Amino acid sequence: MKKSRTRLLSVLFAIIISTMVFGFSMPAKAGEPVDQQGLVDKAHATFQSFMVDSNMAYLKDHLREAKGLLIVPSMLKAGFWVGGSGGSGVLIVKDAKTGQWSQPAFYTLGSVSFGIQFGVEAAEVVMMVRTQKAVDKLLTSSFKLGGDASIAAGPVGGGAKSNVVADIFSFSRSKGAFAGIALDGAVVSTKDKWNNAYYGKSVTPVDILVKRSVSNPNSADLIKAVTQAATVMQKEPMSTGKGRYYEVRQGDTLYRIAKQHSTSVDELCRLNTITANDPIHPGQKLLVAPSK
Asked: Domain 240-292, CATH 3.10.350.10 — does that match?
C-alpha cells in the first residue's frame, strides 16, 4: 500500500513537473499582450533588484561586457523523486556597434531531472550572454544549455573574481529546499506566439534582436534601466576609483547618504540605477560620486 502510494505520488509529481516546465509555453491570445507586458515589467523589477544586490557585484561590474541578457523573473523548481524546472523570460541583445539594447524577445526555459530530490523552489535568474556563439544559438527556435552553448554559475559576493570560461553566466537568487538552480541541460525555446502578440504581427527573434524592425514602447523602462546600468559601469568600473563608493550602514537612508556626500537623492538613484523607493541594506555599496 505504501509503495503504491509513493508510486502514485511520483506519477502525480511528474505530471506537475511536466506542466510546470512545458506549460509556460502556452501563449496568450493574439492582440492581448497583457501577460507579455507583465513579464517585461517583472523582468525590469528583477534586473533592478539584482543591480542593488551586493552579492551580484560581478554582474553589475561586468555588465558592459555582456552581449545579451536573458532575465527570468520566476524560475520554478520542484522535486519528488522526479525533478524539474521551468520559467519564462525575456532576452535583450546589445548592438556591438552602437551599444544600444534591443527590444525584448520572449523565451522559455525547461528541464527534467531524475534522482532523490524533494522540495519546491522559486528563483529569479539573470543570464549574462557573453559570446556571439551564445547569441547565435538564442536566435534559433530551441537549444540546450551546456550542449550547444556552455553555461556556468556566475561569481557572487563583493569583489568576486572569475577565471571561469563559459558562453553564459547565470546568476540566481532563491528561497526554498533547493540550494540553487542548475541550468546545465535546460532547453531554451522561443515563445513565438508571445512575440507575435507583443509586437502585433508575425516576428522572429532575428526581427526583434538583430534587424530591430519592430518595437513596443511599453518596454522602455526595461531598456532604459539596462542601458543606464551598463553605461555607469562602463565609465565607473568598481575595481578602480577608491573612495567613490559608500558602504551602507544600519539605519542609513538614501537622503542621509546623499546629504553626507553633498549630492541629491535623484543623482544617487541615477548613478546606481535605482529609484527612491528601492530598499537599501547594510553592506550594499552605492556609487556616490563618479570619477573626474
From this structure: yes
